[in-house]
Amino acid sequence: MQNRAIDVHCHFFNLSFAFAEVLEIGWRWIQGDYPYKSDKRGLPIVIIPPELWKLAHYVASYFAAATESPEEHYAYEERCCLKSQWHLSELLITVPLMMDIFFMFDHGDTEAQKAVIPALPDVRQRDALNVMTITEDNANTFNKLAQIIKAEFIPVYEKSISARGLAPTWTAKNRTAISRDLDLVIVDFKAGDAAEGVRTMAKSCTQTNVQMTRGYRQHLLELQNLQRDNPGTVLPFLAVDPRRVGIEKLVREQVVEGTFKGVKLYPPLGYLPTHPNLYPVYRLCVEHNLPVTVHTSTGGLLSLCDTIKTQSQKKNGKIVPVTFDKKTSQSAALFFSNPANWLEILENPEFSELHLNFAHFGGEEHISTLANQKPGKLDDPKNWTGQIIGLMKRFKNVYADISYCPNNEMLKYIRNIVARYKIVQKRLMFGSDYIMVMKESTLCGNLDNYFNLYTDIYPEMLTVNPAAFLG
Ligand SMILES: [Zn+2]
To answer: Is 426 a member of any domain?
Structure first.
């Protein structure tokens, strides 16, 4: 792998995945089971809460560039790379990162419910966690909900596509095709345990005690299959959210013993890297030399809650309650994605050798600010790119990737930064953030254009650095 080119940050998920998760959130919500199963039952709800519209709207616009199957997304990336000015003689190695959006509406006030669920010892527990059955009695409500969310998704998708002016070379599906895709998700949802994905998953080791929402499970299976068909060039990362019941077990099955290569974290969806449930995951990662990639920019998908109750575990093991309040912290990104949040983990001798990739290198804004700083001027301690470089100097396995930077100044910025901080040449990695980056109109709907921006990147950023990060 040492000399092969690697895209250490891409995604092969799609709009169907997002739709399935939003549908699951909505269906659980109106029954009082979001994010965890509850015994409390109010009056049967027939009114769809307005928050669900907001969620559907936000998610549909975010995932609008992603309409194809994971196989097609993967094949498209390889085609574009071959066509690009990189002139590779071998296929690109891709690292598709999963995403877990199920908790983006979780305020954290039902944490106690979660603690109760794993005590149930039998198959009913799996059902409570995973299957929100649609019965004859509630089928009408479900159909109504599904149609409302679908009706929200389609126009948002169409508007996003035309607003961004994606060129016809990028497959923008029409209304009929998208509608058909979403209908398939609805059919699968109703099929419950009889659906293909669920049956396959039941055959694998994940049968009990792990909360598997439909979109998450489906995408996990798709990446398993893609990896199986392309073992040398697809190295998927499992999305880990500490609020998902049984997440340590899932990491053990899918990453330690399974086909997934590493772990992906996305804190701005509402948790800190110091969440107590992540400690067992870090322990597995250190023990088995597994890499972790964490979203680190001020952009991206954010939790939709104005306040979130969560927890943080300190180096000394003490667990403290933490409350996020949008009014005082501006945004979930600034609060949860700050690289300084990682000091408690990396300064813990148990985890100081964790292979950690700060995805996006703090984000384009922080990168350009640092790169354009006058020589001799003291670096701003609040600059995230500068903070990450500080961590690279202190910890031997800290890396960063420059994904989602479709800017033709970026190579100049990287050279400026390397001139001042030599270590960056050994720790920075190439990442595309395909398919998310396709939303950028500067690419004109062609991923080749992204590769071409980085033709003259330091070769080690494409090869040696990611190989070392991935172990
Ligand atoms: Zn990404």
So the answer is: yes
Contact 25, 155 (CB under 8 A): no
Tell me the backbone φ, ψ of residue 152, rounded to 5 degrees: -80, -40
46 CA from centroid of ligand 1 (Å): 36
Q: By residue range, what is the domain housing residue 448?
A: 6-13+68-133+208-470
pLDDT digits (tens, 9 = 90+) for 11-63: 999 999 999 999 999 988 888 888 887 766 554 555 677 888 888 888 988 88
Count: domains in the chain: 1
- Whether residue 98 contacts residue 261, with contact meaning beta carbons closer than 8 Å, is answered with no
- 35 within some domain: no
Q: How far is CA 148 from CA 19, 80, 159, in A?
A: 12, 37, 17
Distance from residue 144's CA to the centre of ligand 1 (Å): 33
Q: How far is the CA of 118 from the centre of ligand 1 (A)?
A: 32
What is the pTM for the complete model shown? Answer: 0.94
Is 175 within the bounds of a domain? no
Residue 346 lies in a domain: yes
SS3 404: coil
pLDDT tens digits for range 155-207: 888 887 776 555 444 556 788 889 999 999 999 888 876 655 554 554 454 45
